[in-house]
Structure formats: structure tokens, C-alpha cells
Amino acid sequence: MTQDVDNAIALHRRVERRRLAILCSLLLLVAVFLVLDVATGPALLPVGDVLAALLRRDGEDPTLLAIVWELRLPMGLMALAVGVALGTSGASMQTLLDNPLASPYTLGLAAAAGVGASLCIQNGGWGLNPAFIVPACAFVMACFASAIIYGVGTIRGMGTDTMVLAGIALLFLFHSLQSLLQFRASPEVGQQIVFWLFGSLAKATWTSVTITTLACLGAVPLLLRQSWKLTALRLGEQRARALGVNVSRLRFVTIALISLMTATAISFVGTIGFIGLVAPHLSRLLVGEDQRFLLPMSGLVGALLLSAASVLSKIIMPGVLVPVGIVTALVGVPFFFHLILSRRRLDA
């Protein structure tokens, strides 16, 4: 009996070491794609020169330093920060709602942010600085949508399925409001709204990168502190309660942290879909359902996917920066179909 227990413990430790190795390998791959993202653009830069500029070596060309540090590096880091926010949020939402289709995009948070930004753009930012008031309005509307979803979940007798249905209803509602605002807007304003809704990293600045990164640094560790409870929740609400988990409190804390990350990320870059939906599924294939590994893995996979999409957005049409939201949709849809069909074959 003791030998069996020792063998089980040894096997579990080997699995954990393998998962840690995968996390470290993915972190290295993310760093590689960051360098590629910075090197890619209308003017292709040698990777060696990019690394030298990132290290700020003496004697580097001032123009090269300006391109790397003022234009491309903020975009590259913003892709990583937004990818971490969306990937981690998607994994948390799918676990919390026990629904594989749950994500910030499919539950209407992105659409709500789009309505806030569209309303602000149509009214000229009410005379305030657009660089701050547009993200602020998008943030407020995304938090408002999260509050509605949580409010529905707190009604007596309402389960996670009802919360998912409420999020889908909000998705259609806010998409309709977006269409109404675009219909009423002038051609110039409508073009601005559409460009924002496409999702783009082009307007990333060191300020937006810092704010988004701080939101992730504040929320992700708090989510990791809930990892055991979230893992227990995968067994079902009744079993989680039997294990001592306060499901109502866990739901409130998790939705609040998800709202903070998602609203902050979307408010600066616009609507970017499929990252929060696909990244958790890929992560489960790599590390399983243990939330201690699933949450950081989902964040890293989200960062890798969005960084790769950023690279593709610069090379699909040479000389033109395609909005990254278009790239994630074009690549994400067939890839998600592949995941669905692969899972079906495995289930069979």
C-alpha cells in the first residue's frame, strides 16, 4: 500500500515537472515572438540590430532606437499584455461558468466596450482628450456588462447556464447598439468607430502598456490564489461547496478580476476576438485542468497567439498594417473548428 502511494506521488511530481517545463518553454517562445514582432514592419529590421537596440548598446543609430523604443516595442508589449489578460480571463470564465464557449468576447464584454467607445467617439469625447476618454468610456461599459451578468447570477435559483445566456443576450444587444451608433454617425465619425471596433495595436503607447500590465499584475496573482477553489469548482458546484468553497464569493471575486483585466485591455486596443476562447482550450491540451497551471498557461498562450497575429498583420499586405482583430478572427475561426473536430474524434 505504501509503495502504491509513493508511486502515485512520484508520478504526480513528474507530471508537475513536465508542466513546468512546458510553461518555461512557452515563455521562451513568447520572448522570441516579441523580438520578431519588433523586427517586423514596413521597414524590416535585422534581428541582431533589434536585440542591440533593445539592450541600448552604445553607438546604435538614433533612428533605429526611435523606431524600436517609441513605435514597435510598445505595440509588441501591448500584444503580450492584452494576450495575457484575454487568455487568463477566458480560462477563468470557462471554469467559473462550466461552459467551453465562455469568453470575454462571446459574453458581450467586448461588445459593451465597443458601445462605450463608439458613444464617446460620436460625441467628440465631450471636449476631453480622446486618448483617455475613449478608453475610459469603453472600460465603464465593459464593467457595466459584467455587473449585469453577475447580477443575473445572484438571482435565487439562477445557475451558470442562465449567466451564459444573459451574456449572449448582451452580446446581441450591444452589437445592435453599435450598429445604431454607426448608422447615425457621419461618414468620418463612422470610419473612426469602425477602425476602433476592428481591434488594433497601432495606438499603443507606454502609458497604455503600463496600465494594462499593472492590471494583469494585480489580477493574475489574485486569480492564482483562487486556483484550488476553481479546480474544485470543475467538479461541480455541489461538490465544491462540500469541499468548503464559498461559490458565491468565488464567483464575485473572479468576475471582478476578469472585468478589470478584460475592460482595461479592450479599452485600449478595441475588439479582439477568439484569443480568450481558443487560448484556454489549447492550454488544456498541454497541462490539463489543474488551475495552478491552466491559468498561467492560458495567459502565455494568449500572449503568444496575439503576438503571432501582430506579426502576421504586418506581413499579410506588405506596407499596410492590418488591424490585428481581423487577423485573430481569420486565423481563429478555422483553428477553433480544428479543435472542435479533433475533440470529436477523441471522444469517439
What does the secondary structure layout of this molecule look like, with pairings?
Blueprint: H1 2-39, H2 47-54, H3 62-97, H4 109-122, H5 130-154, H6 160-184, H7 187-198, H8 206-225, H9 227-233, H10 237-242, H11 247-269, H12 275-287, H13 291-315, H14 324-347
Q: What keyword list fits this structure?
A:
348 residues, ABC transporter involved in vitamin B12 uptake, BtuC, mainly alpha
C-alpha termini separation: 35 Å
Secondary-structure element string: HHHHHHHHHHHHHH
Structural class: mainly alpha
Task: Name the overall outline.
Answer: globular
Task: Give the uncertain stretches in residue-range form.
Answer: none
CATH topology: ABC transporter involved in vitamin B12 uptake, BtuC
Task: List how many beta strands DSSP finds.
Answer: 0
**For the record, what is the CATH homologous superfamily label?**
ABC transporter involved in vitamin B12 uptake, BtuC
Radius of gyration, in Å, reads 21 Å
- In which range does the helix fraction lie? over 70%
Number of helices: 14
CATH architecture: Orthogonal Bundle
Describe the main β-sheet briefly: none
Q: Which band does the percent of strand residues land in?
A: under 5%
Give the number of domains: 1
Mean pLDDT: 84
The CATH class assignment is Mainly Alpha
What oligomeric state best describes the polypeptide chains here?
Answer: single chain
Account of the protein in words:
There is one protein chain. The protein is an all-alpha fold and 348 residues long. The chain has one domain: ABC transporter involved in vitamin B12 uptake, BtuC (Orthogonal Bundle). It is 79% helix and 0% strand. The chain contains 14 helices and no strands. It has helices spanning 2-39, 47-54, 62-97, 109-122, 130-154, 160-184, 187-198, 206-225, 227-233, 237-242, 247-269, 275-287, 291-315, 324-347. Helix 4 (109-122) packs antiparallel against helix 5, helix 4 runs antiparallel to helix 7 and helix 6 runs antiparallel to helix 7 (187-198). The chain is globular.
